[in-house]
Amino acid sequence: YSPDEIIVKEQDVGDTLYIIKWGTVSIVKHVADAGTIALATLSQGEFFGDMAVFDAEVRSASVVAKSQCLLLRINGDDLKEVIVDNPRIAIELLRIFVKRLRSANATIETLSRKDHKEAGES
User: Fold this and answer.
1) Which of 4, 40, 52, 96 has most Cβ atoms within 10 angstroms of its Cβ?
2) Which residues contact 37 (CB under 8 A, 6 or more apart)?
3) How far apart are CA 89 and CA 62, in angstroms?
4) For the whole model, what pTM was predicted?
5) pLDDT tens, residue by residue, 58-94
6) Cα torsion through 54, 49, 12, 26, rounded to 10
7) Which residue blocks in 1-122 are alpha helix, DSSP H?
8) What is the CB neighbour count within 10 angstroms for residue 16?
9) Residue 98: left if φ>0, alpha if ψ -120 to 50, beta else—which one?
């Protein structure tokens, strides 16, 4: 993928996990009244697309190449077969999911404090 190229688009149906072989991507989300906000930057060895693979919902965010990127694509059904054959992969995925959830919780807490502070100033 080339810089600024959209790799996956928010609200599209997805069933593929992407692993970054090299390069950097930005996870972005459109928020009403705030425009597009960057949620995360991922680079070599990291992955995205896991949520749509496991919950069969639409993509929760868009992913845009920040630099020239080479990505590996794994179909959701293939990924699930690999996990069944290699349960340690599931444990590693869970570790990463929990880390991301903790980060999201911290962001929510920070935003909540900011909103409460601004509301108190009005």
Assistant:
1) 52
2) 28, 29, 31
3) 25
4) 0.81
5) 998 999 999 999 999 999 999 999 999 999 999 999 9
6) 150
7) 50-55, 76-85, 87-121
8) 17
9) alpha
